[in-house]
Amino acid sequence: MQLPKTVLELMDALACAGFEAWAVGGCVRDQALGLVPHDYDLCSSALPEQLQQVFADRSLVLAGVKHGTVGVVTEDGVVEITTFRREGDYADSRHPGWVQFVPTVQEDLARRDFTINAMAYCPQKGYADPFGGRGDLEQGILRAVGDPVRRFREDALRILRGIRFAARFRLEIEAHTWAAMLSEADGLDALARERVFEELCSLLVWADAPLLLKIRPILAKAIPELAPTMGFCQHSPHHAYDVFTHIAYVTQSVPPQPELRFAALLHDVGKPACFTRDETGRGHFYGHASVGAEMADKILQELRAPSDFRERVVWLIRHHMASDAPPEKTMARRALSRYGIQRMRQLMALQMADLAGKGVVEAEDRSTGLEEFSRLLEQVWQEEGQLSLKTLAVNGRDLMELGYLPGPRLGRTLDALLELVLSQEQPNEKQALLKKAKQWL
Ligand code: ATP
Ligand code: MG
Question: Measuring from each residue's beta carbon to the nearest atom of ligand 1, which residues come in under 6 Å?
């Protein structure tokens, strides 16, 4: 295994002091997959005090020292070195309830979650892989270390982590591991919400539709509001799938950004509550976008999502229904002025995925309209940028010089002037706009 010079130096220093030092976990797994690890974690026979002695002349990060982890600052960032340890239940916290230092790397590997994460490498001794992680990787299998039921009881977050690894590395979840994920999913309730949120974000970024469909019972545990969408028949010629199957396809189709993936996952969460059928028996979901936006707001608050993340997801859901109006430049200019290019790009991606995920042919015609609108947005953005009150050629001070008094009327006048520019009734030029404002006065 290739290790960076900065990491090898630390391992050498430990070896010279008579301790074992192994690269462990994600970095060993990633290299076995031919990927470049994003960081290198080490584990060692040295106790935390001994680690601090060996690296007495280095700057250290000691935040995790109680759990046996010492961070050593190197040119490539902080390398964490953890004393070989066993650990107890994670309860709901981010850290195990207790840790106990152990003498061998094998015992340390036994506390790790999945076989593919329970491999270590040491330049002097080669690989330690007591649970067959390498073989599992080669066969494409995700398998818990030890008894999966016990392992998921110790820390239910491992269920979501496991699904994330399965999604990211396209692994099949081994049968006992999968059965335990299902039987222990109740444990998700006891976890700190922000841990669940973070794990859901990374899982969604990697998951495809078949995986999302497979993990329905687990998603329904993490986000109970999704349960009614599962198997909910839409009774509509516009939809080939039940609500959740549609959600799964839309989620797979949006670009892999956590916000967009979350918005896709929740975009139709309001449908079951809004369902009605007309005299012909056809299903409708009037108002589901705003009902869904309210629900998503609550769901993300409960998951302790950062408020800007929540706000953007809720906005996307509220606006996810594509307009049937023929795409026009004025509409694009107005949308850009109001919401900015970033949000509009995300919204277009969501609307296109929403159409594609209906599983019906007519959606193709409508997507042409959306593509055209996207093109117009980019064109206006390129040519004119974002018109807004900030870029309007007149401001409040100009209007007050004309004789307007400070107050709501001044604000309304500025809005009306912006509207004239957006609809291209007036150019964005000071004289022309002042003339208009004078007339209104
Ligand atoms: P990533 O590429 O996402 O960082 P990783 O495998 O390095 O993947 P980390 O969360 O950085 O994941 O954890 C490092 C290692 O610690 C894991 O490979 C695994 O061996 C162990 N580990 C992490 N979290 C747990 C857990 N909840 N239960 C058991 N072992 C864990
Ligand atoms: Mg890692």
Answer: 25-26, 41, 112-113, 117-118, 155, 157-158
